[in-house]
Amino acid sequence: MRSKIVAANWKMNLTFGEAESLVDDILDRLDEQDELNCEVIICPPFPYLELLTDFEFDEQRFNVGAQNCSAFDMGAYTGEVSAKMLKSIDVDYCIVGHSERRKYFGESDETLAEKVNRLIENNMSPIFCVGEVLEEREAGRHFEVVKEQLEKGLFHLDGDAIYDTIIAYEPVWAIGTGKTATPEQAQEMHAYIRSLVKERYDQAAADDIRILYGGSCNAQNATELFSQPDVDGGLIGGASLKANDFVSICLQASQIGAE
Ligand code: PGA
Fold first, then answer.
1. Does residue 130 line the site of ligand 1, with CB under 6 A?
2. Which of 70, 94, 104, 120 is most buried (CB neighbours < 10 A)?
3. What CATH number does the domain located at 4-258 have?
């Protein structure tokens, strides 16, 4: 069975001191648990990555991911951070194609495909985000939109590399809005995404790949969402900034993972 993943996307929040105390609080609460039947990935802003990888080695309670990386390999690209740099400080995951990057930073499908390539070349796992905006859903185009995002940004990978990836379905209308997709809407899209993986690759890849839900996922709705057969956990924004809420979401995933 696929193990569940709960990934925190801190976005551009917290000072260094706040980040430190949030991790301390999360670890204190996780330490109260004998075992956790899910994987936890925390994706802080770049300057805090090493703080987290240091904790990771001490505690082994979570993995660390970045929120972005450069499409380029190395060199004269002022302000960029490469996948190779991230790997060199023991970061193993990276969010790619978040709707905020697509919208505010104009990241195209082609750029995202290059970012995915850089990550795979450096033995890192992309957490590849897809999702439709409200008008696309209302026009009944959500399946088509998600399919195109996957085909252009992720499905160029060969058969082996797809196993190193995680997909996150994040309907844009649900991100930071408090408006969550219903469990049925999430399941329907996740099952569709899995069918696309099967079509492009094979049954084994479709059975293996983890598909996370993101968009106003919180301590109140996590169990309902994560209980859907094709929802393998969540990518959590706002609720990941509160230790109580985030750990509650992790424990809910763990509970379902143990069943
Ligand atoms: P949210 O964000 O949980 O605050 O809606 C999720 C995300 O953008 O990854």
1. no
2. 94
3. 3.20.20.70
pTM of the model: 0.97
Shortest-distance atom of ligand 1 to CA 174: 5
Parse the chain into domains and list their residue ranges: 4-258
SS3 64: strand
- Lookup result for tokens 């390999």: 73
Q: Which atom of ligand 1 is nearest to the CA of 217?
A: 3
Question: Alpha-carbon distance 68 to 77, whole Å?
Answer: 15
Distance CA 39, CA 232 (A): 10
